[in-house]
Structure formats: C-alpha cells, structure tokens
Amino acid sequence: MKSNSEGLIIDGVVAHIDRDNIDTDQIIPTEYLKSIKKFGFEDYLFDGWRYKDDGKLGVTKEERIIDKSFILNKEPYNESKILLSRDNFGCGSSREHAVWALRDFGIKAVIASSFGDIFYNNSFKNGLLPIILDKNEIEFLFSETKQNVLELSIDLEKKEIIYNQKCITFEVEKHLIDRIIFGLDDIDITFKDKDKIIDFEKNRISTRPWIFK
Amino acid sequence: MKTLYDKLWEEHHVTQLDSGESLLYIDRHYLHEVTSPQAFEGLSKKNLKPWRLDANIATPDHNVPTTRGNNFTSDLINDEISKIQVVELDKNCNKFGIKQFDIQSNKQGIVHVIGPELGYTLPGMTIVCGDSHTSTHGALGCLAMGIGTSEVEHVLATQCLKVSKLKNMNVRFEGVPQVNVSSKDIVLYLIGKIGTAGGTGYAIEFSGSYIDKLSVEGRMTICNMAIEAGAKVGLIAPDETTIDYVKKNSFLDDELFNQAKQCWKSLRTDDKAVFDNEIEIDVSKIKPQVTWGTSPEMVVNFDDPIPTIIDSNEESKKNVELARSYMGIQNESKLSDLVFDKVFIGSCTNSRIEDLRQAAEIVKGKTIAENISEAIVVPGSGLVKEQAENEGLDKVFTDAGFIWRDPGCSMCLGMNPDQLKPHERCASTSNRNFEGRQGYLGRTHLMSPIMAAFTAINGTVGDPS
C-alpha cells in the first residue's frame, strides 16, 4: 500500500474470478491448515484451481504442475493486489488461513457483491480490505475485464474506487478501515476496558455461578 | 419486546466501544488443534496468559486418525505434519493449564459433540470456538458462533469478543415430517430455499411445532448448518426437552442446577418481539434432500431432476455448469442415476447416537452394495462410540460391511487419512460439499444418515421407505 498526499491507496491490476460462493476451502484447502504458522501460505492460495495436481504442505510452487489457464498464473494478474468476484465470497469455514493466503500472495483488497460474515471480519484483522459493491457495479467491472486488463485505484480514506476517471464509492465502517490504515491491535484496545470486564465478571459470578463451575 | 438473541446479547454486554462495536463476555471457549496454535503463539509473544482458565476446554479432532485402537498417543500419528499440530495442542494446554480431553481420553471427540454431552455447554451461555460449526451449541439456547484465530487469541487474553450486533431472523418449522425425513433434510431444504447467503448478517432463531417436538440432537443438526445458510448464529429457545438433556449430562449439584433452571426459563423470545425477517416452512411437504453440486444450496428432493444449464436462470447458469462439470454429472438426469463409491457417516452435523441409531435401523441385516468400496461410520465422541457399542450398533454396521472407527472430524474435511480419491463419489452426512472438501477432486453429496445408510446398501440414492 502506498501513501499519497490524500491518503492510503491500493492500486493496480485486478484479477477476476467470475463465480459465486467462492468458499474458504477453495481459497485454501484443508491440507494447508496443518501449518502452525501465521505466514507462508502464498503458494497454496486457490490451490485446487492454480495447479493440476494434489499438493501437500511444504511442497513449493516450483514442484507443482501449474494450470496456466488460471488467472493468477497469467501475467500481469500474477502480481495483482486486487481481486474481483461475485456473491458470498469467503463463505464456509472460519479459517483465518484463507485471509492469510490472500495476504501472503499480495492481495490487499477483494471486491465482491457480498462476503461470508466470518471471512469479512477476519480480513480487517490482517490488513485485507473487503469491498462490497452492488451487483450492477460488479457486473460493470466484470464487463470491463473483457475488453482489456482492468486497473483500479482504491482510496481507503475517501472510500472510493477510481477507474478511468470514473469514481465508485463504497461503504465500510470507519472502525474497520481504521484497523487497516493504522494497523491497530484489538487486544491492546480491549485492555483499555479491563476494569469493566473485571466488574462484569464479578457480577456474573454472583448471579450465574453455575457457569463458573 | 425482545428476541432470544437480543436477551442473550444484552446479558453478556460488557460495554459499547467508541467504534460502535460491543464487547461481549464469553462464558465458554472451545479449542482444537487447527485454529489455536497461532493464537497461543500470539499470547506467548505478548507475554499474556488466558484470562479465565476454566472457561476453556480443548480436544484434538480435525487431524486425528480414526484407526487408533487402544493405547494410542499423539506420537503415533503417521502424518508428521498432523502430528506436530496435535502435539502442539498438548504442549499449549500443559503450558497454560487448559483442560484438554486429549487423544488418549475416552471422552475425546469432535469439539461440538463433546461440549454438550459433557455438560460444558449450558443454556444462556455465550460460546465461541475457532470453527464455524460452533453455531451447533445454539441448539441449547446459547449465543454461539465461530471465530477466526485472531479472535481466539483475543478471547483467550480478554474473555471478550469484539462484535457488532446481528439482525434477527425467525425460521418457523411447522407440521409433522414424513417417514424417513430427519432434521438434516429439513435444514438442507431451508438452505436450498434461502441460499448459502440467505442468513448472512443474521442470527437465526428456529422455532415452530416441529422444533418443539425435536430432540436436542436433531436441534443440533439444524443449528450446526445455520452457517451453511450464511448465519454464524443459529439458536433455539431452551424448553423441557433441553433441560432434560442438560440434566442428564450435568456435573452441577442439584441446588445449583435448580437455580440455573429458573434462570433458563426466561430465555425465550417475547410474544410481541419483532424480527427483521421471518420465514415459515411446512415440513410435512419436505422429502429426503440430497445435494447434487458444490454448494449446500445446490440441493433437491432425492427423486427430482438434477438442474441443467437449460432450465437455470441467466444468473446461475455459470454456477450450474461449473458444479455439474466438477461433480462429473453428464447425461444422468436424476441423483438415483449416479453410482456411488464411498459412504461417510459422521461429522459434527450427524455423528451423535440418534444419527447412528437411525442409520443402523436401515442397515440392519443387509449388506453394502458391490459398488461401494468403503463405508465408514465415525462416532462423534468416545462416549457416543461407547453408547453405540453398548447398544450393539457397531455390530450392525460391521456385519453389513461398514468399517467402525474412532472419533474425529474424519472425512468431513479429510485432514486426516480419511479422504476421497480423485473423482470418487461419496454419500456423506457432513455439512459441506465444496470442491475438494473430502479430498482432491472428490465428489460429495450431502444427505441424512438415513439416506447415506440407504445409499450404502442400495449403491445409489433412492427411497429409503
């Protein structure tokens, strides 16, 4: 992400996957959830679509049979920071590994008409921006990908997507986007309310003692 | 006037943050080996300890082999990478002092099966776990949801979850179901109607005369799959059925239990409460459901035609085409035309005693079809396994040619050696038919334990009656 005088910008080539309900098993298959690390998932993003063979944790991209027709294996999309998809992106399991895989590949924003709730929430904790646009706008962007390589510029502070001097605005709650802009740590923020948690817990122990057995 | 979800939300509300989100106090936190290691590492790096140790219960389930037999230890896991994860859970639980039902325990099992059966899930609790099927616990009147690993770390450290309130949806199931139609069919039917994003942003409360008469096990199957309808929270108001179930499994003394019981009676939606969305479904019309595609919403009556590109609307043509191609559906017009290779009875959706009883009833005295190369039954926990063996169900299954396994998530997601080979077609009682879910290029058809058992015997899906 680069900074300019007007705020934080994500820009570049948009990789597009034209299907609904891309689930977290597609984003990263279960095999790679065996890792106990939080990083290093870039080679396994969309594993079932990127390769023509079955992978294992620890086997690198160089050792695999690459499906050259898959968009992330084609130039210039192999360096995309923005991904475009349709409905219900990231549905399915709660695995944060799905967000880690997108992040490790270099994706900084996903544009879709809707997202799975848990995926949406996980994204902001890892600097990945999920952007919800209405179906007409998504359709417009897909139609543009058919003509040529689509390049967009996303302004995080203004909540605007700039394309060919056209501007599409998007909505995202301020506290969520602030987490990306400022890289805030949730635990530190919550500990500011430590005394309130202690008081709440004391009261709960006295009124609902069975929960604490 | 408040809904059950509103009441649970308010009861656990610690404070409202400047951001507009809320801090909710978490009563119970379940942990397993897959989504916890990075959270424990985060705690260690920040020099933090769990806020309240006794809130946490851990068990290994996703990675564990189901062919363990007696005296098995974590060290004996063949897959070196899976072993690291299970051993890591042992280490972290020992280091931080968290109670674990480890791989050697006779109470180990799928986290969403053992929680309720060991009395750790109680009505009115907030429950989280790094697993989307945590919604299961809503069946006992809990506010329960799946969370990511960053949140696992946050809950360990602060005993709170930072969340925004969901909208309220009510799904009322009315009527009496047909023979051989179970709660799995009912929830698959709902997902087929509203789609896998139909519940996104909502907490779904399930109610109606069908739910009133349903067992807690059946209710768990429904709440379990709320997430497959997009809702991270599914819940059912506790009633006498719930209280009997909890009492049976409770480790609380009588005085405390009775005190709790009084409190649980208030856990219901007020008569005049308003939901943001309401759906009513007549369950008497529902036939056994089987999925044909690669999303749980791609589901039809077992005897209906499989959707084709020609009869799909413009928007879904591409999804139908991709799904048919992945599932290897060519000229077959009905699900009963598809020849199956494997059968899996298990998962947090359908591995409880009632599920195994229903499947055994179909299988009794019969033999699995020649085209079925493997049919496995994986009980949800050590206690379910023991109960089933006491009832002789293991014998019913093995006599018919099924393999009787040790508890774990198993072929629901194939993290352990229980996987489909490329292009194998599986009748599965699990919850997700995503591409590659049960193994690379594997083909999953979701259905009830009754239909999976029937498919094992018949070789194809059909009318179990």
UniProtKB/TrEMBL annotation, chain A:
Catalytic reaction(s) noted: (2R,3S)-3-isopropylmalate = (2S)-2-isopropylmalate
Domain of life: Bacteria
Residue span, Aconitase A/isopropylmalate dehydratase small subunit swivel domain: 11-134
Pfam families to which the protein is assigned, alphabetical: Aconitase_C
Xref: InterPro entries: 3-IsopropMal_deHydase_ssu, Aconitase/3IPM_dehydase_swvl, AconitaseA/IPMdHydase_ssu_swvl, IPMI_Swivel, LeuD
UniProt GO molecular function: 3-isopropylmalate dehydratase activity
Pathway(s) where this gene product acts: Amino-acid biosynthesis; L-leucine biosynthesis; L-leucine from 3-methyl-2-oxobutanoate: step 2/4
Keyword Cell membrane: no
GO annotation, cellular component aspect: 3-isopropylmalate dehydratase complex
Record has tRNA-binding as a keyword: no
Record-listed E.C. numbers: 4.2.1.33
Family: Belongs to the LeuD family. LeuD type 1 subfamily.
Functional note: Catalyzes the isomerization between 2-isopropylmalate and 3-isopropylmalate, via the formation of 2-isopropylmaleate.
Protein name: 3-isopropylmalate dehydratase small subunit
From TrEMBL, chain B:
GO biological process: L-leucine biosynthetic process
EC number annotated for this UniProt entry: 4.2.1.33
GO molecular-function terms, A-Z: 3-isopropylmalate dehydratase activity; 4 iron, 4 sulfur cluster binding; metal ion binding
PROSITE patterns: ACONITASE_2
Cofactor requirements of the protein: [4Fe-4S] cluster
Family: Belongs to the aconitase/IPM isomerase family. LeuC type 1 subfamily.
Protein name listed in UniProt: 3-isopropylmalate dehydratase large subunit
Protein's organism: SAR86 cluster bacterium SAR86A
Lineage: Bacteria, Pseudomonadati, Pseudomonadota, Gammaproteobacteria, SAR86 cluster
Gene from which the chain derives: leuC
